[in-house]
């Protein structure tokens, strides 16, 4: 949700409208007609028609034979570029892939991007339950994932309060922590443990553990490493998981140190 009070004085309206059109099309996998796009974006049909034709010319939307528009392949190209930029040096990706292969668990890196918790790299493991949301760029549910908890724990209480007030504490499952005091207690326990945990708080039957890779005064340079596994396995192997995560975290930190 955009903050109207934060709108820049030099906002280029046509660019803003084009992005709204692209977002509307992206949220409709079955496609939208120009009239449907205009209605959803609260634009005139004439304006929408010009914007859609421009986006189609640039490859960001595709017109199908039935007259509806879907997202174009240029969007996929931009996403690949985003993933590459997020991943960092090749050694970091190699460390994640090796950890996923050795343990069988999916591993994730996360950091603050524009002040928001986001997943920045993923290496899938065959023993982890597949969670389709956990891909590079995912920026929701920080309070319900161990990766998010690990990053939020680096904030001051006041910074954390503002973050949770802005982004909310949506209940992803019945186990999700949605009260600030319970969440603070959970973070404190994670700090004492040296590893942040969640069991079924983001997805039923899935557990996640996370450790800090690089602390930094600049919040955008703080990195957290996490892994996902069946909740039942976490209950019996938390110490082993922590030891392996810390080892991988050291390798990732070494890889990040080569970043220029």
From TrEMBL:
Transmembrane ranges, per UniProt, are: none
* InterPro entries, per the entry: GAF-like_dom_sf, HTH_MetabolicPath_Reg, Tscrpt_reg_IclR_C, Tscrpt_reg_IclR_N, WH-like_DNA-bd_sf, WH_DNA-bd_sf
Q: Which of UniProt's keywords are assigned here? A: DNA-binding, Transcription, Transcription regulation
Report domain HTH iclR-type positions. Answer: 12-73
Identify the Gene3D superfamilies for this entry. Answer: 3.30.450.40, Winged helix-like DNA-binding domain superfamily/Winged helix DNA-binding domain
Domain IclR-ED: where? 74-260
On the tree of life, the source organism's domain of life is Bacteria
A Pfam family: IclR_C
Instruction: State whether keyword DNA-binding applies.
Output: yes
| PANTHER family given in the database record | HELIX-TURN-HELIX TRANSCRIPTIONAL REGULATOR, ICLR FAMILY (PTHR30136), HTH-TYPE TRANSCRIPTIONAL REPRESSOR ALLR (PTHR30136:SF24)
Question: By what name is this protein known?
Answer: Transcriptional regulator
Q: From which organism does this entry originate?
A: Plantactinospora mayteni
């Amino acid at each position: 949700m955009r903050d109207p009070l934060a709108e820049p004085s030099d906002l280029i309206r046509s660019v803003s409208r084009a992005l709204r059109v692209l977002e509307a099309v992206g949220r409709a996998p079955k496609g939208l007609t120009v009239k449907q796009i205009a209605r959803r974006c609260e634009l005139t049909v004439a304006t929408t028609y010009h914007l859609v034709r421009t986006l189609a010319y640039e490859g960001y939307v595709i017109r199908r034979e039935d007259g509806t528009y879907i997202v174009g392949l240029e969007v996929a190209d931009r996403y690949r570029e985003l993933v590459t930029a997020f991943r960092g040096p090749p050694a970091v990706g190699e460390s994640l892939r090796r950890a996923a292969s050795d343990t069988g668990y999916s591993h994730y890196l996360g950091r603050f991007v524009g002040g928001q918790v986001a997943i920045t790299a993923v290496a899938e493991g065959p023993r982890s339950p597949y969670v389709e949301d956990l891909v590079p760029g995912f920026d929701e549910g920080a309070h319900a994932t161990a990766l998010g908890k690990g990053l939020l724990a680096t904030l001051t209480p006041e910074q954390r309060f503002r973050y949770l007030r802005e982004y909310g504490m949506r209940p992803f499952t019945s186990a999700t922590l949605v009260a600030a005091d319970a969440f603070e207690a959970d973070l404190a326990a994670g700090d004492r443990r040296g590893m942040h945990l969640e069991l079924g708080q983001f997805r039923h039957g899935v557990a996640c553990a996370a450790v800090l890779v690089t602390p930094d005064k600049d919040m955008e340079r703080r990195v957290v490493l996490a892994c996902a596994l069946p909740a039942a396995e976490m209950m019996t192997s938390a110490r082993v998981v922590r030891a392996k995560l810390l080892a991988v975290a050291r390798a990732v930190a070494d890889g990040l140190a080569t970043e220029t």
